[in-house]
Structures are given as structure tokens and as C-alpha cells.
Design a protein that fits this description.
Elements: E1 8-12, H1 17-28, E2 32-37, H2 40-52, E3 57-61, H3 67-81, E4 86-89, H4 104-132, E5 136-141, H5 154-176, E6 181-186, H6 216-228, H7 235-248, E7 252-253, H8 260-274
Parallel strand pairs: 1-2, 1-4, 2-3, 4-5, 5-6, 6-7
Helix pairs in contact: 1-7, 3-4, 4-5
Bound molecules: nicotinamide-adenine-dinucleotide.
The site of nicotinamide-adenine-dinucleotide (NAD) has 31 residues, from α1.
Length: 285
């Protein structure tokens, strides 16, 4: 897309972290922003801050794991602003554990938000973008987890690999249709956000029963992610990286060369190219 000013963006996970940074940076480009999040209080606070700075924003409480909730979001966005040009399928949650011991509820929760949430976004907004035909762009937030290997995090890593693959399908489909819709897959490295406190949004019926899936490995990863996220990149760096990709119509938005996550990705690609066994390439957290 060459021009963002005056156009409309929808951002999920808009109340915190990378999503909130997306809203700030896209608003600074002159866009009208539809902010969607499952957490009502923080969503209103984030929207209020942007309004106070003179931006045109609409906050819509949305649970992206529910198809009806996302189609209601699309309806509100179109009723309010007429058209949507940028969709940031960004909201996501994290769960760790040994792949065979993590309870089904971990997989259901993480896949509900990280995978079905993105798919619901595509189902609700792609037909609308195709119909209005104006230049548009979709950014799906995956993770460097999608292109690296690590133990003890199967629910999250599987979900991000799925978002990565779905984004590649979408890109190829937009090319095949000669659609005016660009696609990017954003793969952040470690970012300083509230992701380690994501359990706050886990629905009651998907909560772990006491002791379920407990393991020293899960405890290790949970402690590590709590300790490491404050050392991560600033969320606005990720938002700016994605916005540059929108302007340049670039699909892969990876951690920059020289970053340890990018190194681990390069090693994994080489593992696959040579069909050799996976290298333990990620630095210790
Ligand atoms: N922080 C990192 O290190 C990192 C690294 C790679 C990828 N990511 C990805 O970035 C994205 C944003 O996460 P973040 O790091 O900013 O975390 P965050 O917890 O700060 O923000 C996530 C937001 O998503 C919202 N959310 C959770 N469940 C939802 C649901 N069902 N419906 C709607 N909103 C929901 C939360 O309320 C929160 O506001 C996620 O997809 C995450 O997987 C994060």
C-alpha cells in the first residue's frame, strides 16, 4: 500500500504490547483505528489514550476465538467507517509444557486464539476487502517460533507454524486472484509485552485442573519467559517493522540479520536443506 492516511485499520490484541503499538503507529500515519481486544478495561484505556491525542478510534470488545464475535467486529467496523483497508491479526497467547503432557485445554486455548482467531479474521474481512477492491493489506502476527525449533513449547510453536503456513496460503491465493490485498507474516523475536501474563485471559472452561500437565520443563519455560520478556525488543520497533512491510508490500517480516533468533532460523533452514537432524540453535533464555 502506498497510502495509509485516511484509511481504516482493524487491530486485534489492541489493548497491550505489539497490538497497542500497532494502533499508536498506524494512527500516527493518519489511519482510523478499530481496536479489538477481549480485555475490556485495558482496551478502553488504550483507546482513550489515542482519542486524547486526537486520533479517530473505535474500541470493540472482541473474543477472536469466537467466529460470531469477529464477524460482529467486522460489522461494527464497516458500519462505522465504511471500509477496512488494513487488518492486523495480532492477538495471541502462550502456553508451554511437554508436548505429550500438556493438557488438551492448553492446545484448545492456544489454537482457539492463535490459529482460529486468525482464520476468523480472514473469513470476516477478506471478502469485504475483495469486494471494495481498494489497496489493502493483512498482517498476521506469527513469531520467530514459527521458523525455529525449541523443546517444551509445543502448543505455542505448533500454533505459530500454523499461522505462518496459513499466511503463505493467503499470499499465494491473493496472487492467484490478482487481488489488491498485500499479505505480511510478522515474526517477532522476544518482545517486551504482557505475553507471559496471558493466563489472565484464559476462559474458565479451558483452565488447567490442579496439577494437570505439571512438569519441571514447563516450570522452567514459564519462569524463563517471565524473566526474559522485559529484556525483549520494544513493541513499537515491531509495529514500525510491520508498517514498513505494508508500504513495501513485503511478505516475510523476520527478526533482523544478526539477531540470535534470525541465526537460529537460518540454522533451521540449513538443517532442512541438508536433511540433517535439528540443531539446538536457540540461545538459553
Ligand atoms: N512478546 C513476544 O515476545 C512475542 C514474540 C513473538 C510473537 N508474539 C506475538 O505477538 C502477538 C501479540 O502479543 P504480545 O506479545 O503483544 O502480548 P500481550 O499479552 O501484551 O498482548 C496480547 C493481547 O491479546 C489479547 N487477547 C488475548 N486473548 C484474546 C482473545 N481471545 N481475543 C482478543 N484478544 C485477545 C490480550 O488481552 C492482550 O491485550 C501474539 O500473537 C504473540 O504470540 C509475541
Amino acid at each position: 500500500m502506498q497510502e495509509l492516511g485516511g484509511r481504516v485499520a482493524v487491530v486485534t490484541g489492541a489493548a497491550s504490547g505489539i497490538g497497542r503499538a500497532f494502533c499508536q503507529r498506524l494512527a500516527a500515519q493518519g489511519m482510523k483505528i478499530v481496536m479489538a481486544d477481549v480485555e475490556g478495561g485495558p482496551l478502553e484505556a488504550a483507546a482513550g489514550a489515542l482519542k486524547a491525542d486526537g486520533h479517530d478510534v473505535l474500541a470493540v470488545r472482541t473474543d477472536i476465538s469466537q467466529a460470531d464475535s469477529v464477524s460482529a467486529l467486522a460489522e461494527r467496523a464497516v458500519d462505522t467507517y465504511g471500509k477496512v483497508h488494513v487488518l492486523c491479526n495480532n492477538a495471541g497467547v502462550f502456553a508451554a509444557g511437554l508436548s505429550w503432557e500438556a493438557p488438551q485445554s492448553d492446545y484448545d486455548w492456544v489454537f482457539g486464539v492463535n490459529v482460529w482467531g486468525v482464520l476468523h479474521g480472514l473469513r470476516s474481512f477478506v471478502p469485504h476487502m475483495l469486494a471494495h477492491g481498494e489497496p489493502s493489506h493483512i498482517v498476521n502476527t506469527a513469531s520467530m517460533a514459527a521458523v525455529t525449533t525449541a523443546p517444551f513449547t509445543a502448543p505455542y510453536y505448533m500454533s505459530k507454524a500454523a499461522v505462518f503456513s496459513l499466511s503463505e496460503s493467503l499470499y499465494a491465493e491473493m496472487q492467484a486472484r490478482s487481488a489488491a490485498i498485500g499479505v505480511s507474516v510478522l515474526c517477532p523475536e522476544l518482545v517486551d509485552t504482557a505475553i507471559a501474563r496471558g493466563e489472565r485471559n484464559r476462559p474458565e472452561h479451558l483452565k488447567r485442573k490442579s496439577g494437570e500437565g505439571d512438569s519441571p520443563e514447563r516450570e522452567l519455560v514459564e519462569k524463563a519467559i517471565h524473566a526474559a520478556t522485559p529484556t525483549g525488543s520494544d513493541p513499537t520497533v515491531l509495529a514500525d517493522r510491520a508498517i514498513e512491510a505494508i508500504y513495501e508490500n513485503r511478505f516475510y517480516v523476520l527478526a533482523p540479520e544478526g539477531n540470535s533468533w534470525r541465526d537460529a532460523c537460518n540454522i533451521r533452514l540449513e538443517d532442512i536443506r541438508l536433511a540433517r537432524n535439528p540443531t539446538d540453535a536457540l540461545p538459553d533464555p
